[in-house]
Specification:
- By secondary structure, this protein is mainly alpha-helical.
- The chain has 3 domains: about 130 residues, Serine Threonine Protein Phosphatase 5, Tetratricopeptide repeat, CATH 1.25.40.390; about 80 residues, no CATH class; about 40 residues, no CATH class.
- Helix content is about 40%, strand content about 5%.
- Strands 1-4 form a two-stranded antiparallel ribbon. Strands 2-3 form a two-stranded antiparallel ribbon.
- It is globular and about 50 Å long.
Length: about 290
């Protein structure tokens, strides 16, 4: 990570910086339960004050505010010229919404909101209206406004994809600190994120209670950004959370096969057949 520059300028903006590499390494350490190493490397992202939380949550995701001070690493998109624009506001829009939301195409609904997520936000959480709202038409009334670029036209948004934000770094740092027994300092990082959301500080949490608090905070802070599944796998919470959600979804009239049960082996993807053919020493993951 140290061989990478701290920042880039000009046409190189958007390439992985030193902070991006350190943050990704911190996430790898966290996943491998190397918590002391995670604390050390994530502190290197935090202490130089290169990044900060923007005062207003909504501003992080505005198409005209890419590469802002909260973005540690993002995939770059632009509608300018013969380049690649993003499509997130359309990909995440509910099916059946049609031209009520999208210009020049139809919503794809590849990542839809749920009542479960809608109800996950605490009263007064300033992130809720940005993150998920009810839509009066379509097959699913919940959608995210996070990446909404007006007007939402197919493949013509400047919205970048935030791979790692500073809020993610703070919450990973808090999680790692808690696992090393330093819940006092972990609360400081957690409460920085909660303060921006207009929420009261958490205090006096024991280690187990802090784990659930971090899980909840990551869910609402990083919603629709592709972290939730991997968070649950990392913490060993995937099976109980998905089992409970499957049962709730079935009773709410969701589109599930009647006898569907979430299987624990789904925490891992199958090893591709081609890779096992090339290397006979590779074994398939259980259940595939």
């Amino acid at each position: 990570a140290t061989v990478l520059p701290v920042t880039y300028t000009g046409a190189d903006v958007g390439r992985a910086t030193r902070g991006a590499a350190q943050a990704l390494l911190g996430k790898a350490y966290l996943t491998n339960k190397q918590f002391d190493k995670a604390v050390a490397i994530l502190k290197e992202v935090i202490t130089p004050n290169r990044y900060r939380l923007l005062p207003v949550y909504d501003d992080v995701f505005r198409a005209n505010n890419g590469n802002n001070a909260e973005i540690v690493f993002s995939v770059q998109y632009t509608r300018t010229g013969n380049k690649e624009g993003s499509n997130f506001s359309i990909d995440f829009a509910p099916t059946g919404a049609g031209s009520d939301i999208v210009t020049g195409g139809n919503p794809a609904a590849v990542n839809q909101g749920t009542l479960d997520l809608f109800n996950a936000f605490e009263t007064g959480d300033l992130r809720k209206n940005v993150s998920i709202q009810r839509f009066t038409g379509g097959d699913n009334p919940y959608y995210t406004r996070k990446f909404l670029d007006q007007p939402p036209t197919v493949n013509e948004s400047d919205n970048d994809w935030p791979v790692i934000r500073y809020a993610d770094v703070l919450l990973m740092y808090a999680e790692a600190l808690n696992e090393t027994g330093n819940t006092t300092d972990a609360l400081v990082s957690l409460n920085q994120v909660r303060s921006r959301a207009g929420l009261s500080a958490k205090t006096g949490l024991a280690q187990d209670a802090f784990r659930l608090a971090i899980e909840q905070e990551r869910r609402v802070e990083l919603n629709f950004e592709g972290h939730r599944w991997f968070d649950l796998v990392r913490t060993g919470r995937l099976v109980p959370v998905m089992t409970a959600y499957t049962a709730k979804y079935r009773t709410s009239g969701g589109y599930l096969v009647g006898n569907y049960q979430f299987a624990a082996n789904k925490a891992l993807y199958p090893v591709p057949f081609r890779e096992r053919s090339l290397n006979p020493n590779l074994t398939q993951n259980p259940g595939y």
